[in-house]
Amino acid sequence: MSELKNDRFLRALNREPVDVTPVWMMRQAGRYLPEYRETRATAGDFMSLCKNADFACEVTIQPLERFPLDAAILFSDILTVPDAMGLGLYFETGEGPKFKKAVRTEQDVAALPLPNVSSDLDYVMNAVKTIRAELNGRVPLIGFSGSPWTLATYMVEGGSTKDFRHIKRMMYETPEVMHALLDKLAVTVTAYLNEQIRSGAQAVQVFDTWGGVLSGPCYREFSLKYMQQIVDGLIREHDGRKVPVILFTKNGGQWLEAIADTGTDALGLDWTTNIDEARARVGGKVAIQGNMDPCVLYAGPERIRAEVEDILQRFGNNPGHVFNLGHGIHQYVDPENAKVFVEAVHELSAKYHA
Ligand code: CP3
């Protein structure tokens, strides 16, 4: 495998010195880019884009051609895992993801097969290999998965939800059924991420998008516990290099100490917690990735630069910061504003690394 030409993302995750703060954006490949919409139209639909390694590679690289990003993220989706468990993922235009089958009962959970990640999800592994070859050491490639809790919300609800009606009923009424499902998912996600690492992913991120809808005790019992299981089971070194893991719980600001205690290398931070306070609480233990409100990108260049400066200044002269948005970039953002953001991080952070 080729030498990395830019490893500041991996160095920052290991809390090593860097020349400038590395930056990437969650959902950096997506609908806000006209070239993405064009490739998706050529592919036919979203899943065809994910299942064709050349298309997936093309859209992964698109944001890197526009902005000086310090990492690429595999183009795929968290819902490939439940799809491989036989639930039949499809996307209704304008309505988000849906499953043909929802998981509601003890029998449904018992009947769920554990997928063979290298054959049932071979298209993901092929995409990882193709992207690594195409990157040729330009920047590291991030692999990812949903957390067991977040995947379970889609599987039990049968798609996106605002009220978490079915999954919370399962959790409170039949916790043993909930645990059986989460345990199957933790085993599968661990194998899935390890196969991505063997295929060439150089860091991995677990998206716990919905952990923040839980009470403190339920977060520990139904979300964090299974991310802990994943952290414990991951390959932490591959090809002579550490493979850092990032845990991102959206709205998880109250639980940063507990997340850091899992042994993760880094935690993802949304914009609702100040990054200086987060660093004071856990910065001695883990790197922090975040945390600009993605909506700042609706404002003009001056406001964007001021927000970048504020976050950099809060983090200060300390190791272990990966700059990112606090959640995915929105589809209506002007790509020119994303460019202002990424360039500002490099330009304004140099003074903190002198
Ligand atoms: O970050 C990247 O650039 C890599 C690609 C990526 C996608 N989804 C592509 C995608 C990643 C990392 C994801 C993760 C994902 N998917 C999450 C966790 C991250 C988060 O945002 O919290 C979740 C919850 C999903 C589930 C999902 N997939 C939803 C809810 C949707 C619909 C979104 C919408 O606004 O319609 C998707 C589809 C999806 N995944 C799109 C993309 C680019 C849009 C599909 C399209 O092109 O029409």
Query: Got a strand count?
Result: 11
Order of helices and strands: HHHHEHEEHHHEHHHEHEEEHEHEHEH
- In what range is the share of β-strand residues? 5-15%
Count up the domains.
1
Characterize the main sheet. Answer: 7 strands, parallel
Distance between the termini: 31 Å
Query: Which ligands appear in the coordinates?
Result: coproporphyrinogen III
Can you walk me through this structure?
This protein is α/β, with parallel strands linked by helices and 354 residues long. It has one domain: Alpha-Beta Barrel (TIM Barrel). The protein contains 16 helices and 11 strands. The chain has helices spanning 8-13, 34-43, 46-51, 53-66, 80-87, 106-111, 117-120, 122-135, 148-157, 165-173, 175-199, 216-233, 256-260, 275-282, 301-315, 335-349, and strands spanning 72-73, 89-92, 96-99, 141-146, 203-208, 237-238, 241-242, 245-249, 266-268, 287-292, 321-325. The strands form 3 sheets. A 7-stranded parallel beta sheet has the order 1-4-5-8-9-10-11. It has a two-stranded antiparallel sheet with strand order 2-3. A two-stranded antiparallel ribbon has the order 6-7. Helix 2 (34-43) runs antiparallel to helix 4, helix 4 (53-66) packs across helix 8 and helix 11 packs parallel to helix 12 (216-233). The longest helix has 25 residues, at 175-199. The chain is globular and about 60 Å long. The protein starts with 7 loop residues before the first helix and ends in a 5-residue tail after the last helix. Residues 26-31, 40, 46, 73, 75, 77-79, 96-97, 144, 160, 207, 209, 328 line the site of coproporphyrinogen III.
